[in-house]
Amino acid sequence: MQNGRYVHIFFLDGVGLGGDDPDVNPFVSANLPHLTELLGAGWFATRDPIRTERASLVPTDANLEMPKKPQSATGQATILTGRNVAQLVGEHYGPKPNPAVQAVIAQGTLFQEVVGAGGQAALITPYPQGYFDAVARGKRLLSAVPLAATQAGLPLMNADDLRNGRAVSPGFTGQGWREHLGYTDIPLLTLEEAGRQISEVARRYQFSFFEHWPSDRAGHRGTLSEAAAHLELIDGVLGGLLDAWDDENGLLILTSDHGNIEEKDQRQHTRNPVPTLLVGPEHAHLAAEIHDLRDIAKMTRTFLGLPTPVFV
């Protein structure tokens, strides 16, 4: 692996590139100063790559030559393996991986590849004790990302990791852990502080992954204005993350598994391209490698100097 280099994937579930109709796409009305400063006005409706001095944005195909609408399990597994998982299992599938998707994940992911090369890797999204209890009782299935982490022998982060700054809540601030989960001692963070903490934690690993699933929920539920407000939360976190990011050594990848939130005139996934945002060394050169979700893993291997795995 390349010494001193590291990759962080900031994963947003259910975020696509839509149109410019303010009655449909919450990106149009949302106030997103950090992303707009980074990429320019109207970036959220592009179908062409955007290159700036600091960043590259590539509209990325999540359909993978398969019919129907992309789903979370196969999309996330494709991001982490570099394989067309929907094609391998015969369909877009989700939200949780079925046995066929589980079998593909078991053959290897970026988490396992980094660990196998002697590096450190982590899923930095924490889970409450109730989640672990439900999994142990067989009442809950692991989604694709935590399944990939555990298959690589990595422990899932918990409340103690969140409490001590080793993880960041998928809701960013920790308020949900206090209000809904009963963890009254969880530190509260501002959006900017949450972004800075993600950057700080990412430096400790050669490969790390932050999973933000509430963006998909904001697509399936709620109003257009609520979706716009949710996007503004994400932009606030990205402001802190970008301010703290080490552009010389770290490659920051923001991407998604399928569209959803960008079309609030319906409540289902879309076949729109998803945004893949790159910040860091050689971002423009690396962006040229991206066409569909398979290329996220391929690009990560290139950046870290990992060999291309051979799958049976």
Description:
- Helix content is 39%, strand content 12%.
- It is built from 15 helices and seven strands.
- Strands 2-3-7-6-1-5-4 form a seven-stranded mixed beta sheet, with helices on both faces.
- Strand 2 and strand 3 form a beta hairpin.
- Helix 5 runs parallel beside helix 8.
- The longest helix has 21 residues.
- The mean pLDDT is 97.
Q: Rg from C-alpha positions?
A: 18 Å
Q: In which range does the helix fraction lie?
A: 25-40%
CATH topology label: Alkaline Phosphatase, subunit A
Tell me what portion of residues adopts beta-strand conformation.
Answer: 5-15%
User: Termini, distance in Å?
Assistant: 24 Å
CATH C-level name? Alpha Beta
For the secondary structure, the number of strands is: 7
Total discrete domains: 1
Walk me through the topology.
Elements: E1 6-12, H1 26-29, H2 33-39, E2 50-51, E3 55-60, H3 72-81, H4 85-89, H5 99-106, H6 110-116, E4 121-123, H7 129-136, H8 144-151, H9 159-163, H10 175-179, H11 191-202, E5 207-212, H12 214-220, H13 224-244, E6 250-255, E7 274-279, H14 283-287, H15 294-304
Parallel strand pairs: 1-5, 1-6, 4-5
Antiparallel strand pairs: 2-3, 3-7, 6-7
Helix pairs in contact: 3-15, 5-8, 11-13
Short account of what is shown:
By secondary structure, this protein is α/β, with parallel strands linked by helices.
Give short descriptive properties of this protein.
alpha/beta, Alkaline Phosphatase, subunit A, 7-stranded mixed beta sheet, 7 strands, 39% helix
